[in-house]
Fold:
Amino acid sequence: MTILGWIILGGISGWIATSLMNSRGSEGCCMNVIIGIIGAVVGGAIFHRLVGGNPIHGFNLYSVAVATVGAIVVLAVVNAFRR
Structure:
């Protein structure tokens, strides 16, 4: 996947994750992309190691779901450290 694909995937999954987690502050577009990209890496590791699924391998609905789950995990850890 290209850099542009990672940015788009990160933006979509970061936005979905922050919407589902009801984040207090508005993270903004750049922070959603960063959260989404980190979430894609974390979600890929979780799905590959624990579940046995394929890691992110393109821009499709499965990749968005994996990245969103990873972004939710990242946001949960960040919110735990903020408190």
Observations:
- The first helix runs from residue 3 to 20.
- The two ends are 36 Å apart (CA to CA).
